[in-house]
Amino acid sequence: MTCLHGRHINPIILAGLDGNNWCIGDYMRRGGYSALKKVLSEKIPPEQIVNELKKSALRGRGGAGFPTGLKWSFMPKSFTGEKYLICNSDEGEPGTFKDRDIMRYNPHSVIEGMAIAAYAMGAKTGYNYVHGEVWDCYERMEVALEEARAAGFVGDNILGSDFSFQLYNHHGYGAYICGEETALLDSLEGKKGMPRFKPPFPASYGLYGKPTTVNNTETLACVPWIVLNGGEKFLSMGRPNSGGTKIFSVCGHVNQPGNYEVPLGTPFAKLLELAGGMRGGKKFKACIPGGSSMPVLPAHIMLATDMDYDSIAKAGSMLGSGGVIIMDETVCMVKALLRLSYFYFEESCGQCTPCREGTGWLYRVVNRIEHGQGKQEDLDLLVNVADNIAGRTICALGDAAALPVKSFITHFREEFEHHIESKQCLVPTYA
Amino acid sequence: MNAPMILSPEALAKIDKATTKYPPGQKRSAVMAALTIAQDEKGWLSTETMDFVAQCLGMPPIAVYEVATFYSMYDLQPVGKYKISLCTNLPCALSGANAAADYLKKKLAIDFNETTGDGQFTLKQGECFGACGDAPVLLVNNKRMCSFMTREKLEKLLAELK
Question: A251 vs B133: CB contact, 8 Å cut-off?
Fold first, then answer.
């Protein structure tokens, strides 16, 4: 239900959805698959599609924000063997729930986007890796894929062309780390999902050791629109360096939690208004604007910020996956950080010592502060541990554990100090 | 295959079908699907079941154990008829997950990672399901997601499952 409302601004992916119109016929009535038809009937050269993507300034919507066109251009063109395209639908970044809505309400936008991406990169096979906990989305994608196969949009000689693309859904089973693209590849190979050391990057050594590109669900769902309307038009919808619209998942203490697709650069205050404002009229205290791995910001900074990659970076955080967690005045920031620190401790794959040991340290030290056993030197200890994790691990989970700790202490130091000195909380506990 | 058939012919057919998604020689990629199918049928994954899955896919048993122990939705111990996994991560906690946890623990008289004496319910603490807009959320037996779990809805769910 979270995206079935009229409060989007110039939506591309979530436009016109009512929860029931996800089938292939509905999608085609909305103009779906016309981009794929155009590509194949006009025999658009793959490089031209990659260039259009570059012009669009579409950036990876999964969290890293890497320019999509540039990523596609890394795939070796002369390589004649098998190449793979992977859709990363392993959406488990706390605060983020947009790919779930795309998959259940507009699954064909992902399939069409994948087919075009595969054509542009010369990939013959694709996998959509679906988050373990959203079984209904996996089933929905399976049905949609059957529809697309039956209609000739996926499979051999698509629409009578010499382009063939086989696509499959793969269901995860509960590991946050598999959202990291190389952990996802190992998981697809039937192994523990442990991130790989890079280089080599997936474009040269990916799934089964073959050239591979991994893109997020929302990123791929933008592709048909860009092919039909042009990269420049997509770019002009957003801001320079932040093209197009973005689906923000707004959760926490707002009246109407949900997904809101808006042009990049939309003021945060407008997004908060779309989400119905603060629940119960309480005072807005803090916000994590890009999923739990990104730095928290106090309300006054957020309210002066626009929602695009550069503006949020300038404000001291990151746009990340677009998971916007809103906290009101009743939230104890120590308790909030404790829950996040537990999460990273729980989800560390254990491969790199700084992360495996460090996340445990962060959790235990925040835990003792929360429970009135903290010492004054603990705040320096937390920062020290965080500094010794960040940048010293194979993947970004280490940074993801460290960033919240440092930002919570930076912006809400007095709450941590109060916990340590008076052994109690500055704010009333929340339910 | 000389070992006793641990899984039903239906389950084996599903596993065979899952392997067709992957290239020849990469049957191992179907191990997550195979373990899911096996767990759906047996309720949990015993060593015997995992060994059988290993045999089906031509994998060393240790490689199957590695996968089964890595992903949190596989159960390596028997669980109740209904396994309730409640997300308590920050977004869910901001919208009542802790109250939901307290209610379930009290009503079922168990803590997280425990099973009721009658074998009906197991309670687990989950991590982000990617459905924070519906907070608080829980999963019944890994596949059924229940949204906006207020006290009233929890009562209704428990009554339905009893």
Answer: yes
Verify whether the Cβ–Cβ distance B91 to A252 is below 8 Å: yes
Which residue of chain A is at minimal alpha-carbon distance from B150?
Answer: A431
Q: Has residue A431 got a pLDDT over 50?
A: no
CATH number of the domain bearing residue B22: 1.10.10.1590
Cross-chain residue pair A173–B98, CB shorter than 8 Å:
no
Among all residues of chain B, which has the CA nearest to that of A325? Answer: B91
Whether residue A93 and residue B33 make contact (CB cut-off 8 A), yes or no, is no
In a domain, B22, yes or no: yes
Q: Are strands B82-87 and B121-126 parallel, antiparallel or unpaired?
A: parallel
Q: What is the pTM of this model?
A: 0.96
Instruction: Identify whether residues B88 and B150 lie together within a single domain.
Output: yes
Q: Which residues form the domain of B65?
A: 9-70
Q: What are the chain A neighbours of B18 within 8 Å (beta carbons)? A: none
- From the list A419, A411, A325, the residue with the least C-alpha distance to A366 is A419
8 A C-beta contact, residue A251 and residue A324: yes
Residue A1 pLDDT grade (very low, low, confident, very high; cuts 50, 70, 90):
low
Do residues B100 and B139 both lie within one domain?
Answer: yes
Contacts across the A-B interface (CB distance below 8 Å)? 163
Here the tokens at position B162 are 């009893």
Structure tokens at A94: 């706390």
d(Cα B72, Cα B58) in Å, to the nearest integer?
Answer: 24
Among B23, B59, B129, the residue with its CB nearest the CB of A208 is B23
Alpha helix locations (H) across A194-284?
217-229, 231-237, 268-274
In 3-state terms, what secondary structure has residue A370?
A: helix
- Residue A17: pLDDT above 50? yes
| Distance (Å, whole) CA A116 – CA A87 | 13
